[in-house]
Amino acid sequence: MILKGFEALKSFLIKPKNIVLIGHRNPDGDAMGSTLGLQHYLTKKGHKATVVVPNEYPDFLHWLPGSENTYRFDWQNSQSQKAINASDIIFLLDFNALHRVGFDMQKTLEKYPNDFVMIDHHQQPDDVKYMYSDVEICATCQMVYQFIEMNNDLDLIDEAIATCLYTGIMTDTGSFRFRSTTSKTHRIIADLIEKGAQNDKIHNNVYDANSYGRLLLLGQALSNLQILPAYKTAFITLTEAEKKKFDFQKGDTEGVVNYALSLKGIIFAAIFIEDKEQHIIKISFRSKGDFSVNQFSRNHFNGGGHDNAAGGKFNGSVEEVITTFKELLPTYKNELNRSYEI
């Protein structure tokens, strides 16, 4: 764990400040839950807090308390720039490096004259003045809870804060099934429920709000599934044409890679998604046991994340990324076969 400048930050925040909170590009449940949850907390402490997200986030997260007041940097650029320029400090939540917000927003943040606070659980974070980093914690939303706890303010957690933090922990732990989910996580979840988080409604809002197109897209993804038993590996592909055919919306591929990992005997899974807008192949990796997809992605696909969940990107076609991926696997055959999960 890295806890840097915490006492100085507490002193800085004694008086009301103008604060901006930022999550990573293509925000997920943990990014939105942590930024909105912390926004509600800071507002209760007397600060003016504004959430700015790099781009659109999934429709199944738009119900989160405070979501309607967020700014999108790509779409509401003047409002976003105004908020950033007027801020005294910026909180960076659920990402470890400025490039994770996208090129345009990164350039804006690199010119920012004031200080950053980073609260994040990904490996190898950038160095900023104030930092709370812990790769052992399952979700940034749990870290926000513990940040509030460090400030002796757990009594300020209300239904809105509890709902946001519960959502992020639930989504980043795969509904509490990943190895990073600890007994402390469950104790925090219990407290969030006691403080107003309605676990059944949150689950329904996130997981039981599928569109017809999203289910058909999932069917297409599963029909594209390929298995490489010699390497205990499976992967899924989705082309731009397939996405368009089923009316793809932001968030529709969230969690699809886990279906490949759910196969018996598989310890390494990937999904390759064509993204014409960014001219890349977006990649998500998942693994079981000791095989680090964080290191695999850093080594070969300009990405990173956690040991068992990471992302990356590839400049080329779907066919080319598949070829590259298959050519890499023999190098990792022994590591894959040594995983304790199988």
General description of the model:
The chain has 342 residues and is α/β, with parallel strands linked by helices. It has 14 helices and 13 strands. It has helices at 6-12, 29-44, 77-86, 103-110, 140-150, 159-172, 183-194, 199-207, 212-223, 240-245, 257-261, 293-300, 318-328, 333-338, and strands at residues 2-4, 18-22, 48-53, 71-72, 89-93, 115-120, 130-133, 226-228, 233-238, 268-275, 280-287, 304-305, 309-314. The strands form 2 sheets. It has a 7-stranded mixed sheet with strand order 1-7-6-5-2-3-4, with helices on both faces. Strands 8-9-10-11-13-12 form a 6-stranded mixed sheet. A hairpin with a 3-residue loop joins strand 12 and strand 13 (309-314). The longest helix has 16 residues, at 29-44.
Brief synopsis:
With 342 residues, the protein is of the alpha/beta class.
Determine the structural class based on helices, strands and strand pairing.
alpha/beta
- The overall pLDDT, averaged over residues, is 95
Coarse morphology:
globular
What composes the largest sheet?
7 strands, mixed
- How much of the sequence is in beta strands? 15-25%
Which stretches are low in confidence, meaning pLDDT under 50 for 5 or more residues running?
none
| Physical arrangement of strands within the biggest beta sheet | 1-7-6-5-2-3-4
Give the helices and strands as they follow along the chain. Answer: EHEHEEHEHEEHHHHHEEHHEEHEEHH
Q: What portion of residues is helical? A: 25-40%
- The N- and C-terminal alpha carbons lie at a distance of 30 Å
Number of helices: 14
C-alpha-based Rg, rounded: 20 Å
Number of strands: 13
Oligomer: single chain
